[in-house]
Amino acid sequence: MAKDPHSPQNNRPRGETLVWLSSAGLALGILMVVGLLSLIFVEGITVFWPKEVVQLTLKEDSAHKIGDSNTLAGTIVKRQQNIRRHVEEWQIFTGNKDAYGNMFKYIDADDVVEMTVPESIVVAERMEYGNSIFYPVAVVTGEDHRVEAGDDAFWSVFEQLLAEARDRRDRINDLERKDIGKINRKVNDLTIQMRHLDRLESEGEEPQTGRKAKIQEQLDSLQQRFKVLAAQARDLREAQHQDTLEYRLATGQVRSQPVGDLVDAYRPNRMDWLDKVGYFFKHLWAFLSERPREANTEGGIFPAIFGTFVMTVLMSAAVMPFGVVAAIYLREYARQGHFVRAVRIAVNNLAGVPSIVYGVFGLGFFVYFVGGTIDQLFFPDRLPTATFGTGGILWASLTLAIMTVPVVVVATEEALAAVPRGAREASLACGASKWQTIQRVVLPASAPGILTGLILAMARGAGEVAPLMIVGVVKLAPSLPIDGVFPYVHLERKFMHLGFHIYDLGFQSPDSEAARPMVFATTFLLILLVVVLNLGAILIRNHLRKKYATGSF
Amino acid sequence: MTRFIFVGGLGVIIAIFGIFFFILAEIIPLFRGASVESIGDLPSGQRGSILIGVDEWAEYPFLLDEEGHLSFHDLHGSRDVRREDVPLPEKATITSVSYLQELQLLALGLSNGQYLTGKVLYKPVFAADGSRTIDVDLEWDPAEQLGPEGSELIGIDVFVSDQRKTVAAIADGESDGHLIVRSLVRKRNPFGVSSFKLDNEEDLTDQLEGYPVEVLVGANAESLVVRCEQGSVQYFRWTGSKWDLRQRFYPFGRNSDSIASMNFIKGEVSLAFSSLSGDQVVFSLYRFPDSGERLYGQTKTFEPFPGGADIFARSMRNKAFFIANSERISLRYSTTADIRWEKEVHYPLRHLVVNGKFDRILALDDNGDLHLYSLSDPHPEAGFRAFFARIWYEGQDSPQFIWQSSGGSSDDFEPKLSLIPLIVGSLKGTFYALLFALPIALLAAIYTSQFLSPELKRVIKPGIEIMASLPSVVLGFLAALWLAPLIEDRIPSVILICIGVPATAVLFGYLWNLLPIRFRILIPKGWEFIVFLPVMIIVCYLGWHLGPLFEQVAFRLQDPSTGQTVADFRLWWESFAGSQFQQRNSLVVGFMMGFAVIPIIYTIADDALSAVPKALTSASLALGASRWQTTARIVLPSAAAGIFSAFMIGLGRAVGETMIVVMATGNTPIMDMDIFSGMRTLSANIAVELPEAPQDGTLYRTLFLGAFVLFVLTFTVNTVAEVLRHRLRERYKVVG
């Protein structure tokens, strides 16, 4: 084959280099997305997996000893090169914040003389001061009954005590939150009634001594009941301290702690793969269903999930009717002229207005103006404590609803426009009125598109944090917006939100290293939620495009 | 049903635009001036008053005459005039007076060279039915001799701080005038406070140029300002053992007898001077750059006050003050050099005072009549100049743009509300975001629409759109807590990667093209990008690990502290650019905002490029153009409007981005464009400060103004982009 420069096989099209350059742009974009999602996935998932605990013996003259001891135990969290000092550093999670002052420690890899994987080492989750890593010495139940760690029965006894402590903790929780909480609420209501009567008196009405006396009676009896319950709770709390665990830290220090302060304990180096999977799911479930502890750095994120869910539902309930109605009006009823085009352009652009502007509007209008007026009219006796005149889940949902209305309007309009004209004309030709056509032909046909808009709005609402920071999200909400207390749905309560939880954990935590696993886990959950919603919307949209691509009458 | 839809639809549209009007309504009060209304007049029956004072609520003012007769007049209720006498020594009259309204302290200079201080302590008294009357207690200290026998004290001022009390007086004897300063100290211990003991007494007359006319004691009782007849002003400072003459200056030029008044504005750092011909200026203490000393310099010039002003009253709440003469009153604000309100009065005005709550003005005329006005000026520190012009703030050495809305522990803090640093911050963030995002997004869009194989496009396009759904709080958190610490010490690696990636792309393409066709068909058209997936990872890996080596070679400098040569990018940058290296900087923010902006630009550019009719591309290819030539010369120019609109919408998104900026910058409102320093944007500023801003206060409304600016900016940018897109769509409806 001669090297004929004009042969088509040797033809080199011009500009191919630049085609490759542009493909590099796409490759970078894909790498960015995939890289980010994998990072979050890996960092998030590994939080729940029980990690191996090693015991390290350091050199005698090491600068990283804890106190006098050159032994320490923990999990190796990170290995990195310190390029300043040209050494490899390891970050060890040693736990035991109450003993060491800090839960994490950096050591130089060169200082490690010996590394073992001890079978008997225990990792325990605690109510305070984070996790603890130790060798158990003995467990002392009741007065004097002592079970040494060497005994065969030790571990089962220990686990049973832990289970008992958990039960007691649940009972204390129920007592305090439900029963005592109910009493507190009744006392609150009665006090407000009393204030109401006082206010009427001062405004000149007749004194209602009879009713006031009755209220006072009720208050007294509630006070008695409170004392009884409080005593019960106190007894239970004392019972939590009756069993003690003695343990030895890797540094040699011997400490003791009431079993009631421990949440859970496991021996990571003894677990086989099946055990680890079991522990993984248990930990994951606890994360999803429990309340947070230790300034949000431990425990679960259930209130945040619930708050996000309730807010998204309220927001969708607010946005759907208005968005769909506005889109129907724009597309079907309004005379298509310059004005409607201008309105449509404006509505499209409102989707691009920064979310913080909506937050500002929500604060000024909903919280202060509408909320303040509601307080003046309906809750004057609770003032100066604001009921609706401060941030809450209702105002947050309405603010986000206004923010996502443009998204729903645009998506609905596109869906309505995609319904072929032929279908509409056929319906009208059969004698249906305009509204009947819309109701029975157009809307059902465009339902998937409207659904897409709703899903996009929900995804946006779940992810936006900036406006919520101003209108009602808090770091730790004392109660959920929906609970068993009449009127069951409390629209004035502040709530927790997944996105804000991430911000709070990352930036308002007392110990940001300790919060790191929680942040990644929460981020993973949020990303999962948002990506699933968006993928769903995109798939529906693609499916729709295919469906209507060929349909033309 | 139709009517319901009509009403509902219209209602939603109105609600959406209601946002604009609501925010506008919240910011309009910022640009109003003060409103002053006359409430009433009250003849006091006392002529010849030398001073008027008032309580915080403006209900029980007092008048003082030179015989020492005090009269309290009840403006609210119906109590009779209460008369008290100042315990003056025999045959002495009051020759000068100074009233410190914040401390409720009165200092009287007497005709026999003595002075007397006392307190006019107002207190509210609550009756059983909840109504309030103001009552007053008077406390007088014994008169002390300050000037030589036979002199009169024609000028006096006092200041009492926690530990010092400084009394300064001008004693006018037969032939000369003396400036005498007496300092007293007291000690405070956990058990209480001792009484004032004499610390120092000095006569400073020989350090003055000219005959002393007026003296003022400054902040902390440790500074003095003296005005002399020939227009000179002397500034003294207490060094711990004596008074040191720091500065002599002439506000209106030498040898002019023209200073009509000299008064401190709240905070005791700025002096307001007015001249007899009507000029009005403010001098403030600041550190002069060349000498490094803290001296008075002229910082503000006000509009002239016709006729010159000799009457002064100042607000105890902010930097506002009144100047007046017998015919005219003017309310002015020092920070912005703004006239809030000015009016002629039709009575011979003699004295003026404003109450602590800054809502009442009392004017006393020569006939002894009291005129009461209501004052409403909720936002004096706002205004167009305050937000957008350079202001010379107290303590600064030049006019600057500063945003610092609150600070310090004292009430003397001057709010600095310039929006310019925030706007510059927003533009800086946008610039770096687009710098990073625009090339990637455009190249990816060109490739996706023109060259990518259709089966892959179905998978790839949603993949990039997933990027758009990432919540910005996640991006911000990753930027601040993962990326910033990671690259803090590895900037040379980042530089290598930023150079390596495009270089590799071009090099690879070029080399690939040189290969014979039997290699080139191995990668089918539309699948080129797959090759780059592993290649880019390798380039990044190499760049990351070669970074330290690069640093050793390229970024050497002399370490100033040890004198050795070190290779450290951060130190090198500080000596190269002169600015500090921040961990959370624009590079990090730009990269992460790229995640937010790339998918938007990509989607719209891809739509625009795909909308170019296939007939055009087919015709070009049929005529023998290569695929790149077709793209570059046919498709890109046709879709230029769409690409521009994609850029604009991306710009709008970047400007409004809040969470990434809140978390990943230092939130410092600085005005440089360095890549390794932080910024504070309009949106982040609102998110951070609004929860703490008191409702309807100046800061609250100013943040609404920031939101308004953001709204208008993004709305305009998006509308322009939409109009362009619409035009493009229209253009291609006809073709094909």
Description of the structure:
The complex is a heterodimer of chains A (553) and B (736). By secondary structure, chain A is an alpha+beta fold. Chain A is built from 14 helices and 13 strands. Chain A has helices spanning 16-45, 97-100, 154-202, 209-240, 273-289, 302-333, 338-350, 355-378, 393-418, 421-429, 434-463, 466-471, 498-507, 512-549, and strands at 54-58, 71-82, 87-93, 104-108, 112-116, 122-126, 132-141, 145-148, 244-248, 254-258, 262-266, 292-293, 298-299. In chain A, strands 6, 7, 8, 9, 10 and 11 form a 6-stranded antiparallel β-sheet that branches. Chain A has a 5-stranded antiparallel β-sheet with strand order 4-3-2-1-5, with no helix packed on it. Chain A has a two-stranded antiparallel sheet with strand order 12-13. In chain A, β12 and β13 form a beta hairpin. In chain A, α1 (16-45) packs across α14. Chain A is flat and about 90 Å long. By secondary structure, chain B is of the alpha+beta class. In chain B, strands 6, 7, 8, 9 and 10 form a 5-stranded antiparallel β-sheet that branches. In chain B, strands 1-31-30-29 form a 4-stranded antiparallel β-sheet, with no helix packed on it. In chain B, strands 2-3-4-5 form a 4-stranded antiparallel β-sheet, with no helix packed on it. In chain B, α1 crosses α16 (698-734), α3 (420-451) packs across α13 (640-656) and α11 packs antiparallel against α12 (627-638). Chain B is elongated and about 120 Å long. Chain B starts with a helix and ends with a helix. The chains are: A alpha+beta (553), B alpha+beta (736). At the A-B interface, α1, α6, α7, α8 and α9 of A face α1, α3, α4, α5 and α6 of B.
What's the number of helices of chain B? Answer: 16
Q: What's the count of strands of chain B?
A: 35
Q: What's the Cα radius of gyration of chain B?
A: 36 Å
Series of H and E elements of chain A: HEEEHEEEEEHHEEEHEEHHHHHHHHH
Strand content of chain B is: 25-35%
Helix content of chain B: 25-40%
Low-confidence stretches of chain A: none
For the largest beta-sheet of chain B, the strand count, sense and barrel status come to:
5 strands, antiparallel
